[in-house]
Amino acid sequence: MEASVKMQAGAADYLLECPICGGRYEDSPGEFLLSCPEKHPPALLRAIYKVTKFVTHPEHTGVFRFFDWLPIRRKLPGAAGPVAFHSTALGPFLGLENLFIIFNGWWPEKGALMETCTFKELEAQAVCGRIVDGWRSSLVVSSAGNTARAFHDACSRYKVPALLVVPGNSLPLLWSTGASDPEVRLAVLDGGADYADAIELGNGIAATEGFYPEGGARNAARRDGMGTAVLAAVESSGRIPDHYFQAVGSGTGAIAAWEMNLRLQGDDRFARGKMRLHLSQNAPFTPMTDAWEAGSRTLTPAADGRRLSRSIRARVLGNRNPPYSIAGGVFDALTDTRGFMYRVTNTEARKAGRLFEKLEGCDIDPAAQVALASLRQAVDQGRIGRGDMVALNITGGGHRRLRRDRRIAFLRPQATFTLKALRKEGPARGLALLRAALT
Ligand SMILES: [Zn+2]
What we know:
Blueprint: H1 2-8, E1 14-17, E2 24-25, E3 46-49, E4 83-86, H2 90-94, E5 98-107, E6 112-113, H3 120-130, E7 138-142, H4 146-158, E8 162-167, E9 175-176, E10 184-190, H5 195-206, E11 211-213, H6 220-237, E12 243-247, H7 252-264, E13 276-282, H8 287-293, H9 305-310, H10 330-337, E14 340-344, H11 346-360, H12 366-380, E15 389-397, H13 399-405, E16 409-410, E17 415-418, H14 419-425, H15 427-438
The structure holds zinc ion.
């Protein structure tokens, strides 16, 4: 109770710790501390919390019921969150007695009420909670689509000024069931641009006055927001899973799951629980699977990575620069948990989607289909015991169901640029044009 009062008064109940040098830092109130100031290779700063016991707070909704383990300055009302339940249809079908499904999306019968239908809503809400009320600079978020949709809704609801930068091919993913706040703006990079191009442009804008970077995987609030998916599984099952399955594009969700597991081990009840990460990518775009199977900490970008990333069913997994090698990143998470990586074809993913819908009764995203297909591979390969506790993170779902229940509107960009035009103008002039279009 005391912790909650202190947080609302604006003093943080967390510090940020560097996994390389062990330095501990207080957070800044607005523009986030995203990296260690010491001179050493880059690392992901982790939040460490005053509260070390896992407690839930049902008086708060969604992700904020886990607020002890979110690096936030304020708890926001009306938030949705992850739900987890024991599967009585898919589990038995796969020969698994203890399959727990973590569902992120719209499935009211299960208590899943995320109207953006994506687990990115977990991170968007946590990141908004990390910003003090009334901060005027504009948060810059680069996205392949789902993240922008989640930040659009969270930033509009909680009045956080934001600029969302997306590649043109992700426009079909940008819709909302709610109202847009005028200070939440959308810039589109067209002409064959992909996610990596959007990140580059976003970084350029975020370095200029009046803007600041959200930080992606480097933002501890983003990771711990996503980590609440694991907390939902523990809340529902009473233990740490033996195995955790998720599809990865950046791998931020997987890093988050691992970090939350380490945090849970600080609570005596869960001290010995370590879940093995089973992470999957959508073939033929599998840079992290390739590197992990080669035993390499270094990613070797495919010469045709841009083309390959466009050929996958789960487009949101097409990240060409994931935080794989960085200290505290995907490679470290896989190493610590003796993890596995998988490659799933478009056909396998599609079949898995149909199977989930038939057995469990809800449509799921292509990325979640990839995760389920990887679970089928793991079962076929004998990696999972019949009684093992398995958590399957359905990172998005319920789109079709939502369309029956709610009216959705597609977002309209405030500025559209082509990659070619920005390059022709040069970076500085390109940025100036973009700023002019937005003001
Ligand atoms: Zn450091």
